[in-house]
Specification:
Oligomer: single chain
Structural class: mainly beta
Order of helices and strands: HEEHEEEEEEEEEEEHE
CATH architecture of the largest domain: Beta Barrel
Number of strands: 14
Number of domains: 3
Distance between the termini: 116 Å
Number of helices: 3
Radius of gyration: 41 Å
Length: 262
Amino acid sequence: MMLGLALFLALSAGSLYWWNTPSVLLTVDGGTRKVHAHPGTVADLLKEQGIALAPDDFTTPPLTTHLAHNMPVKITRVLNSLEKERVRLPPVIQWQTRTRVNLRRVLVQKGAAVERLRSWRVTRYDGKEVSRRLAKEKTLRHPFFTLTLFNDSGFPLKKYDLLKAKTLKMLATGYYVGDPMVPGDETRMGYKLQRGLVAVDPTVIPLGTRLYIPGYGYSFAADTGSAIKGLRIDLAVKDAKEEKLYNHRKVTVYLLDKTKKW
C-alpha cells in the first residue's frame, strides 16, 4: 500500500514538473525545433541551450521576455558588411578621327574611360539582404589615346595604346613620286611609293615598323635615304605643295610594332 502511494506521488510530481516546464518552438540558424526549458526568460533559454549571440543578433521576443508554453522564439543572425561596387560608364570621347588616307583604314581616339566606385553598407538577416545604404561614391577618369587598325572588310584588326607606345621626337621632311631628289618610285622594301610610307634610319627605327605621326597619320617604315640619318624621317606625300607642309617640321613618332606588312 505504502509502495503504491509512493509511486503515485512520484509520478504525480513528475507530471507536475513537465506540466510546469514550457515547451518552446525555437528557430535558429535555419531550423526549428521544440525544446523543453526551465521556467525563466528567453535569455535563460539561450544559456541553457548553449546558444551565443553575436553583437548585432537579436531575438523575437526580446531576451527579457518570460517563457510561456508553446511560445515561438526566433533568433535572427545579423551580418553588417561593407561591399564595394565598380561600374563602367560609357567612355568620354574628346577627339577622334577615322580615315584611310594612309595605307589602310584607321581610327584614332583620345578621351577618358570612366568608372564609378561605390561602397555600400549592407545588412542581412539570416543571410537575406534587408537594407543597403550608400556609404561612399567616387568617379574615376582614366585617359586613353588609341589607334585601331581595320582589315579590308572593315573589321577591327588591332588596337594600340598610344599612351604606352615608345615615342621619338624627330625632324620631318617630305618626298613624293616625281621629286627631282627622289631616284625612283620604289621603296627599299619594294613597295610602290605612296602616302603613308616613310623613310627612316634603320638603326633608329627598324624597317617594317608600324608608326603613328600626329598630323600625318598612320605610316609604315619601308624606305631609307642617304640624308635620313639619326632622328630624321622622310614622309611620302602627294605632291610638292604638300611637301612644304612637312619640310623641317618637328614631329612626334609613335612606334607601334614590327610586322611584315602594313
